[in-house]
Amino acid sequence: KTASGEPLPVETTLIRVPWEDGYRLAAFSRDMREEKAQKQKITEADNLNRQLDIEKKAAQRAIQMRNEFLANLSHEFLTPMNAIQGFLNLVLMSPLSPQQRQWLKRTEEAAKSLLSVINNVLEISSLESGKLNFVSRFFCLDNILQNLNKEFLPKAQTKELFFEIKCPADIPNQLIGDAVRLEQVLSHLLSNAFKFTPSGNVVLDIQISDSSRADDGETVSLPGDMVMLQFAVRDTGIGMTLEEQNGLFHSYTQADASTTREYSGTGVGLAICKGIVELMGGKIWCESTPQQGSTFYATACFEVGKR
User: Fold this and answer.
1) What are 230-244's pLDDT values in tens digits?
2) Which of 5, 23, 45, 171 is the 20 to 30 A CA-CA neighbour of 15?
3) Buried b / exposed e along 139-171 (16+ C-beta atoms within 10 A)
């Protein structure tokens, strides 16, 4: 005990030593308060870590179940929405007054917007639950570029923007991979560029990635006769600060909360793009300056097709 009578944890060591015609006991006592407190902290930390691990696994399981639930709802969501759009198209083909046609046109636009939101939520849920489907087959890059040109050239004309797709002759046209997913990524990046660009230009530039190009400029065949392509979408839009770019490719985030009101969107599109290009062996990143525009880069790996 201490002088005040408080119990004191000690470790006492007794040693028998020869002394004159007999033996004596030598005792050494060591204060164990600090060691005991340290052991208590370690025990509490271990218990806390175990509890956190249990809670982490439970949270991960809950997220997985949520994502699986949303991913399995695709038909339940999409079937009625497709029916709504189909019937709207039929009604719009029938005789209508100008006011009725205007109302139905707005309804059709709202249905398309809602369908886009549903698709994005389902895509990110499928991605996070590991159920995003990829189909690798032969395709021509030119076909994708023609589709993108048909989709965005009218938008460029409406907003009076210069639009161009640059694809050098050394880019292989015949590829093997998921053409639908590639077009989905490029379409989203171009859509964002047009959305945030009030004037100037939008350009899609395609190059062979430096990771698959030798110092002399010749193409280097990756394992399995693969090629890494880099797609750059440049615009002269509103741009972003470095702070706004942080978390840009995370789910349900946008550069600025005000963009949700002004430009609309769910904030999952770029997260979907990131997941897709990573599954295609590539990566995605952004370079931007406020009021000067942005450039979004995406790389993807394809097998060079032979026919």
Assistant:
1) 999 999 999 988 888
2) 5
3) bebeebbeebeeebeebbeeeebebebebeeeb
